[in-house]
Amino acid sequence: MFLSDNIKVFSGSSNPALAAKICKYLGVPAGGAKIEQFPDGEKIIKCEDDVRGKDCFVVQSGCTPVDENIVEMLIFIDCLRRASATRITVVIPYFGYARQDRKDEGRVPITAKLVSNLIRTAGADRILAMDLHAAQLQGFFDIPVDHLFAEPVLTKHFKNKKLENLTIVSPDVGNIKRAARYVNNLNGDLAIIHKRRISANVVQACEIIGNVEGRNVLMCDDIISTAGTICTAAKIVKERGAKQVFVGATHGILCGAAVERIAEAPIDELVVTDTVPLNEDAKKLKNLKILTVSEILGEAIKRIHRNESISSMFN
């Protein structure tokens, strides 16, 4: 594809492999930048390409180490702003701190709003995000946000498997809308698991609404963190007579005891995307499949650069 010389795509330290795939899709070289640390741990970033008057994109996920990657993102934005970039778009495949999006009890922060304010203050002109934890997070930003979804990538994968007698199971009540979209796209039935959260990392599944006996089950979520919810859900549908259990997620954070739980759970295949790099233990999971979202992100970057529609990508 032909893109003007006016575009520059840079990668932070969080996910250089994904950034490289995006550049390959766009047919542009990765922007030159030197990312180093002072002896005391402070980050220093030097842009090695001339960006004066350029349309710049910075690819950086808010994954582990979360605080370090977010601060690096802010420094990168400031670097490009002070180098006179015409427009700075922050490409955030995974938006860290998104789960703290409201005050659900007293004396707690709203970190999603805090981070959005920091990004804007640093000098970003727009955001390109993938599967925010909640759609209303777009309203936390005072700059334009293009919100992408990994569902087309996951849906295509499971369509190709030609699963019969398929039931889409929502692992919790809050995920019903997402499950309903997969029902429409994959022509399956819908079931819902009602759960009770005991603490931040302990979940108890209580009941399943719908039929899974003798059926292939697919559970999809936006994020798998400690895997407590999804593994508990897999066990309960298997106990209720499910044949095969497939799990899909956009962001495979897989922290804490996630790898051990998944290895022990009755999950036939776990499918995640490359919005965040997986740790070495996670890569050893035999039932793991990694899909790339580089083409979706690359296409969105191309359309932003050309001032074309993003929403038409999902029509």
Write structural notes for this entry.
With 315 residues, the protein is of the alpha/beta class. The chain folds into 2 domains: 164 residues, Rossmann fold; 141 residues, Rossmann fold (3-Layer(aba) Sandwich). Helix content is 30%, strand content 27%. The strands form 3 sheets. It has a 7-stranded mixed sheet with strand order 10-9-8-11-12-13-14, with helices on both faces. The chain has a 5-stranded parallel sheet with strand order 1-4-5-6-7, sandwiched between helices. A hairpin with a 2-residue loop joins strand 9 and strand 10. Helix 2 packs parallel to helix 3. The mean pLDDT is 94.
Report a brief summary of the structure.
The protein has 315 residues and is of the alpha/beta class. It has helices spanning 16-26, 66-82, 111-122, 151-160, 176-186, 228-239, 258-264, 280-283, 294-305; strands spanning 7-11, 33-37, 43-47, 55-59, 87-92, 126-130, 145-148, 166-170, 189-199, 202-209, 216-224, 245-252, 269-273, 288-291. The chain is built from 9 helices and 14 strands.
List its salient traits.
single chain; 315 residues; alpha/beta; Rossmann fold; 2 domains; seven-stranded mixed β-sheet; five-stranded parallel β-sheet; 9 helices; globular
